[in-house]
Amino acid sequence: QSHKTITMGKRNGRKQAEEQKQPEPDPEPDYTFEAPSTPKVLFYTIFLPLILLVWYGKGITPPDDPNYTIDGSRNDALQQQHHPSSGGGRRNDAVNLTPTVSPNAASRPTVSGVSSSAKMSHGAGGFNNPSGKRPQSTHQRGHIPERAQVDGKIAMLRKNVDEQPFNVKSLIELANNLRNRNTIYAEGGIDDKEVIWCYDRAIALLKDTKNQAAQMGAKDQVALVDTFLCMTTYYLGLVWSGSDMYEDAIKVFSEAQNYKCQPDEYINIIMKRGYAYMIMGDYENAVKDYFEMYKLDKDRFLHEGLGTVVRIAESKADVIPGGWNWIVNVVEKDLRRITHELDSAYETSLRELAAKKLQKMHLALWTYHDKITKDRDNAWKHLEQSQYFKQVYTMSLPEMEIEHSRGLKEIFNVDFIQKIKGAGNMSRMPIFIVGFPRSGTTLLERVLDAHPQVAGLGENSIMNGKVGSIRSQLQDSYKRGWSYVHQVITTIGNEVVTSMEKRWDNIVDSRFRDGEDSNEVKPTRIIDKLNTNHRNVGFIHMLFPNALIIHAARNPMDSVFSAYKHDFNVEFPMPDGSTKNFDNMCRMDTAVEVYQVYRDIMDHWESVMPGRIMHVRYEELVHDLEGVAKAVIAAAGLTWHDEILNFHLRKQAVNTWSSTQVRKGINTKGIDTWKKYEAQLEPMLEMLGDYIDYDLTTSHYTPIKENF
Prior knowledge:
The protein is mostly helical. 53% of the residues lie in helices and 5% in strands. Strand 6 (570-573) and strand 7 form a beta hairpin.
């Protein structure tokens, strides 16, 4: 196919958000709950109270802050995925509590110094692990020079835990560093089992400490340990929710709520639990948590909780006391006050905080008028206001997409595709779903996941997190010839498959612990879904020449408009160590530019690998679910099952912006939605230019018998 020239959208008046260096982090707390070899009574009556009182007296509490990284510096990791930021959605909550005092090797505990409850590590939400041993990942990661220090520190921490298995500080520090590494390098949670084991064991040790202190009547010490139990249990809940295991997260957050929590921590807990309830479709309990959040901290609710309540209202407004009227009253009552906050704020951080509130508030009013009153003019006014305020604290970088696409096309040409023929993992187990945001990828994943031999892993793309490592290893291997390059490609492909299987095993372990059927059938197909993986189709083909790659496509105007009106963003690290919110979709011109890049790279893949990708048209899927679903199942090399058509009735977490919509099943309401605002979207029509049409239809795909 011919290569289209990307028509750059106009950028007149692009607002440059101010940048401000983040303040230095507070001193980090010291987790030194070590049981010395001396009798327990000395530990509980002297050493522990002193440590806790010193820690607590300093006013230092482990922060629920994404800016605390592995080396203790303040620098956010770039999220690799577009996840919803509103209402406590999944975000980078990984923290590191590096001790200010080195652990005393001379006081390493013995098994006899800790009760049986701690030995077996039966804390909140732990995996079924009767051996009590730390489950360590044996997965070999590719060498990336800048992460050598990260891996080295984790190796040291693992050694500390192995040598001092009852040291709470070591357990929590290892868990936090593993979480940070997963966030920074987007590894799909392959270390989650080990992280959960560490938190679980630390919780058991803290419970043991609390019980001993209670027996001695040390009420102050009981209260202090309770505070740390709240914090650590909350972190455990974040791991479960970050792994899309929301039922487990709800149980753990509920346990954390029972401890003595600091006010902000308590709000974190009910907010995260409310979000987990929403993802699971339990809207009633979700609303209860968000209403409590509103009562405790109204301003925080406006920028962290309101968005989720609006999503619930879109699906089932009657579960909200007062329904839409309550939402509108909450917003309109404080709209003028928050606007004044923004106008009078001199500090960038205060301006951005006020802008975040206003963005969520106007977005709520946009949804209300769009869905309920049908007042298109008023709705559009609030949508524009919402996007205006978002640009106060958010930046758009379509140039990065353009440069990235250009580089991929230079690498993955016809000659390169031929040279890598015969390399890679030949398994057909992975299924990759790609597409532009809001193009039907979530719906497609749910349909496939309804097959008994298929498992969807949610938005934790294993493949996406490997791209940096793949590039680094390939660059090193070129010097040794193509034969060695083939070996490296095959090895990486094997590693990705192992990571997918490990992720599935973690999910199964969770189900077994809850008493579900232990005869779970191991899937023969595992879905790796992430919209932005359309950029990585070349890498996917290189590693898995026989894997099914499905591209979900939708009407261009519906795609871009739907992405434009939704609240996507990630946190982007700046050179000075601060962070900025990043979203290419909050401006009409940049949203169009990114769409043009997406179309251009998809055209490229089709030109160098014709027929390699199965295309599924969203409009055809919703009009003919059975016909398209059967074609997709056949392309995956699987037999048809009629229960696939009832995919929306299955109990499953759906952690994307489409979650409340997918639960309703198939409908055609998403077709031609842009036409309601055709007059307002005239600039978008003009910017799209040659990309205004997309004549792609669902393709008849034959499973590959040999390398392309």
